Amino acid sequence: MKFKAKLDALDYVVTESFDPNDEAKFRMLIVWLEDQKIRWYKEEDRAALRSYSSTNWETAFANYLNDLECPEVVRPDRARLTNWLLNLAVRYEYGDNADKYRPMTKENIVSGTFSGKAAAAAAIDALNSLDPTSSEFVNGVMESAKIVNVMQHEQHLHVLKALAIFCDARLREEAVEEFTTNREPAITVQLKDVELGLKVNDQQVKDAAKVLRLLHINELRKLQTQINETIVAAQAITANPKTDQSLGQVGR
Fold it and tell me: Is the pLDDT assigned to residue 118 strictly greater than 70?
């Protein structure tokens, strides 16, 4: 779940079932964040925000976002708005407990000195301190993309998203284990030797179509392998059925 790490780090009671698009759950989270973590208003000034079933809540919430100086660009999207508010709450949580979290460096977390919610909170705060528009960040994203052969794009955040998808698909523990277990010898194929089966004049389009054709063939091959495995498993069951001889009888 997208917000689980941050909600866990903040000790929010409902993490697994939280959905920012669920109006009731969203409003309850906002009230909890203000009461427990952000505390922008004085106790007596939170009444309008706490009345999350009131018809005036949207107005109170809009005023609250104005007071927090929440960027207009994130407000229409509930997911982005939730993420922004959680980041703010984590920042205040760290500020209130700086002495507790200060020793939680990357080295201490990796070594296991700190773990669990405390480590999660420290890691999130470190991410929040990054400036995604800085030249160092942009260069780091682009260099990382080159290492794993992810296509470059003028928008570095698109490249970062592609990197995230690549890491999820290829570098997860399960994916690495599956690759190691089922790895087959690599086959080198020259595009010039691949038959496309249709006439295309533009060479770049033709090469792209060949790549798509090879990927499609590879997917079909995987599907055929899975079908064969299913057939074998079914045959193993039907060829050796389990019977209960006590139920058998001769004659009427």
Answer: no
